Amino acid sequence: MVRPRRSSGLTAAEPREALIGGELSVLYNPQAPQLGFVLTSVVLVLMVASAVSVFDRRATNRSRRSSDEVATPLAPKIVMAETRGVFHGPVTVTVLIPAHNEETPLPQTLSSLASQSHLPARVIVVADNCTDRTAEVARDAGVEVFETVGNTEKKAGALNQALKEVLPAQGPNDVVMVMDADTWLDDGFLEAAVHKFTQDRALMAVGGLFYGEEGHGLLGQFQRNEYTRYGRQIRRRRGRVFVLTGTASLFRPKALRTIADQRGDTLPGRHGDVYDTAALTEDNELTIAIKSLGGLMISPTECSVVTELMPNLRLLWRQRLRWQRGALENIGAYGINRQTFRYWAQQLGIGYSVIALGTFFLLIFITVLSVDRWIWFPFWLGIGLLFVVERVVSVWRGGWRARLLAATLFPELLFDMFLNLVYVKGVIDITLGKNAAWGNTTAETQSLSRRRTDESTVTADA
């Protein structure tokens, strides 16, 4: 029980002393911001969030209704008119798996495809400059192998080579799926995706919701919580896509052919390429490209995948720096328009988070060094409690470990600060014109593969 001690001469701004349990003495200050200030702040935040949401929805609706075959050739109204009264056969799936030295995770990826209720018509492993047994592992599993020739443009270049071979033979309903070699589809993924394409002739792409694999200690849980929150956000948006994830997404041939035709004209990149080889985040760039052409896309909750996580901070830093810098360069290449407005707003939001969270930690540090005794503010404790509740609720699907980590609050705030530093580094690198060098070195990749192989062997022996 909290029992305030009587004291004379106190004002609302002065700290008061209370006993907790009759023994623990604490100081607290009941002062709170004026109600008008609080209400104004809440209204301002809601207005900004609503404005971004309304603008995004209006841009989507405008693309849906567009009949401009030059600016928006993938718009639903145009696609539906072209396909009205024509049956192009059942939807089939051709899977492309770009793989560079992926002999260890590849078998599980192929196994997840083989166990789908709707089996793909073709599975093609795109072996890109491999120095291990990736191609042999794929052939042993009974799938096709496409080996790149002279590719120096990494994943995007490998996929461009493969798509130039695959796309010409694809019919309107022969969708192409691109998935990473370290990703595993949940049961029913392809069946749900094929159902969506069958039900909606105007649908150009279906993206998966990705979740993190188990393991990797506290760092792994940070990443799983992050992915769980992203999935919740997409579900609340009823599948409306931010990014068609490179872990697993499906595309109609019309979308890919149109993008290749528009490259170098209305879209960045080299004419004839589906993927822009200059983009650091090819999946994000391809999403913006389809949106710019008016294409309709979704990420259904039934289409979920499990993907690998970064096992240490160095690799996580490298991965996130590539994602962050790639996102900034993508929207820079497209400029500010209806399709990119939300992406610009998100990046500005991250910039604000850098300032706000950094200031928060700085003030706590200064306070700890400057005060003789800590003073609690019930109003701000209440605000903090609401924030904790939101953090816990947003990862509820992740299980008790996710909830426990979210409830402790400060570890996740420190992880957020780590991501903010990645953002700052990305902005600085772009400003200074620093060239980007990405991807694990061969030694790192081989080391990780050996470690996973050893862990699997130990588990099997046990």
Topology record:
Layout: E1 2-4, E2 16-20, E3 24-28, H1 35-65, H2 76-83, E4 92-99, H3 106-114, E5 122-127, H4 134-140, E6 144-147, H5 154-166, E7 174-179, E8 183-185, H6 189-199, E9 203-207, E10 209-212, H7 217-236, E11 248-251, H8 253-262, H9 282-292, E12 296-298, E13 304-307, H10 313-334, H11 341-370, E14 375-376, H12 378-394, H13 400-408, H14 410-432, H15 442-461
Parallel strand pairs: 3-14, 4-5, 4-7, 5-6, 9-12, 10-13
Antiparallel strand pairs: 1-2, 2-3, 7-11, 8-13, 9-11
Helix pairs in contact: 7-13, 9-10, 10-14, 11-14, 12-13
Please trace the helix and strand order, writing H or E for each element: EEEHHEHEHEHEEHEEHEHHEEHHEHHHH
**Would you report the number of β strands?**
14
Task: Indicate the mean pLDDT.
Answer: 87
Query: How much of the residues is beta strand, in percent?
Result: 5-15%
Helix tally equals 15
Strand order of the largest sheet: 6-5-4-7-11-9-12
Q: First CA to last CA: what distance? A: 53 Å
Morphology call: globular
- Summarize the amount of helix as a percent range: 40-55%
Q: Helix/strand-derived class?
A: alpha/beta
Largest sheet: 7 strands, mixed
Low-confidence stretches: 6-11, 449-462
Radius of gyration: 26 Å
Task: Describe the model.
The protein is α/β, with parallel strands linked by helices and 462 residues long. It has 15 helices and 14 strands. A hairpin with a 3-residue loop joins β2 (16-20) and β3. The protein is globular and about 80 Å long. The protein starts with a strand and ends with a helix. Mean pLDDT is 87; it is low at 6-11 and 449-462.
